[in-house]
């Protein structure tokens, strides 16, 4: 099979400093500059200069493996949004064995980011999606698997609708797909004003925590894993409020993707927390996508960021989903994949929601804890 990577010009992506020029690919083109720095978490962080400004991409794994691109929610980055899932041994063996993971941070959301001036124009959601295409161009990636959470799920879904030949599958967590309701729009405007004038104040943090987690986890200190709320609160203290303001403005200006969803033909796995504020968006999205290629997993007693609150609930659906591409845990297949993801390895009917045992209804993921 041909490599999933496109031919590169210039230095290899893993070099210390390099410049690559690519001819137009789809609707995006241009030159990018990367400054690679080693980070202490086992990967490399690449600072890529796109047509719309710099963006940080942390790369983990074997560059010869198929690519998994992630995108987090507002005010989060890959460590605060995907760490709970990646640190599960079962998920780690499944994902890192099969993929090279490219964690894209929204502009200014990486650790140690400099503040973006509020005088600088806010990027539109289309420009953020085009940034993803430029990142893929830089790394010489052709078709990729996409994994997004809330706002990040919207950006990657929009990317998939604009660059259909570059997306093999979508894994979406509590995805947004409609324009914001008047209530959401107004709340976001108020929070944007607080960020602008007061920075990451207590009210802003409470708004974001309610966006991410269920009330149960927020209120109780006796629930297993409830320390994720305090960890997230501490993480938010370190964020550049101006950068969060920019991304919140961008996502608050999003538009309805319903018509675009009807045209998507890639397999899609949707997770949504039972208590997520965006539950209705996820249900709406699942009804508009082709049911042959879409499965919805509703996780009970969970908020929006399932990857952190209930990562174990994702393992079995993820494993069955990836089987449709011929990808398995290393204990099941001794060889390491170095070829393109091939959805034709398994008949499409075997990846239907019914075959996955999901049946588009809630599944119980938490047992009652005895105190």
From TrEMBL:
It holds the Pfam family Ndr. InterPro entries: AB_hydrolase_fold, NDRG. Keywords: Membrane, Transmembrane, Transmembrane helix. The chain crosses the membrane at residues 138-160. PANTHER family: N-MYC DOWNSTREAM REGULATED. Belongs to the NDRG family. This is Pollen-specific protein SF21-like.
């Amino acid at each position: 099979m041909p490599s999933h990577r496109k031919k590169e010009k210039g230095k290899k992506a893993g070099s210390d400093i390099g410049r690559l020029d690519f001819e137009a690919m789809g609707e995006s083109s241009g030159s990018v500059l990367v400054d690679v720095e080693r980070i202490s978490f086992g990967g490399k962080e690449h600072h890529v200069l796109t047509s719309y400004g710099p963006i940080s991409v942390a790369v983990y794994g074997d560059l010869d493996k198929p690519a998994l691109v992630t995108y987090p929610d507002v005010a989060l980055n890959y460590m605060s949004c995907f760490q709970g899932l990646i640190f599960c041994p079962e998920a780690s063996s499944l994902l890192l064995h099969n993929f090279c993971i490219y964690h894209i941070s929204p502009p200014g959301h990486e650790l140690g980011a400099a503040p973006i001036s509020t005088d600088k124009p806010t990027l539109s959601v289309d420009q953020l999606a085009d940034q993803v295409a430029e990142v893929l161009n830089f790394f010489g990636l052709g078709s990729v698997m996409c994994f997004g959470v809330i706002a990040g799920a919207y950006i990657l879904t929009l990317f998939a609708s604009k660059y259909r030949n570059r997306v093999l599958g979508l894994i979406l967590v509590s995805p947004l797909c409609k324009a914001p309701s008047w209530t959401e729009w107004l709340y976001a405007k108020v929070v944007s004003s607080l960020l602008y004038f007061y920075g990451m104040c207590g009210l802003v943090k409470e708004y974001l925590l309610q966006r991410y987690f269920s009330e149960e986890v927020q209120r109780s200190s006796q629930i297993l894993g409830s320390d994720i709320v305090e960890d997230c609160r501490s993480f938010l203290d370190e964020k550049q409020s101006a950068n969060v303001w920019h991304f919140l403005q961008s996502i608050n200006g999003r538009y309805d993707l319903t018509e675009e969803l009807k045209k998507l033909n890639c397999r899609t796995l949707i997770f949504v927390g039972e208590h997520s504020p965006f539950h209705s968006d996820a249900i709406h999205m699942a009804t508009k996508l082709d049911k042959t290629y879409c499965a919805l997993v509703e996780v009970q007693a969970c908020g929006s960021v399932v990857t952190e609150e209930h990562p174990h609930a994702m393992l079995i659906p993820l494993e069955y989903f990836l089987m449709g591409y011929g990808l398995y845990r290393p204990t099941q297949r001794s060889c390491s994949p170095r070829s393109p993801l091939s959805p034709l390895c398994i008949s499409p009917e075997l990846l239907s929601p019914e075959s996955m045992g999901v049946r588009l209804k809630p599944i119980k993921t938490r047992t009652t804890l005895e105190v």
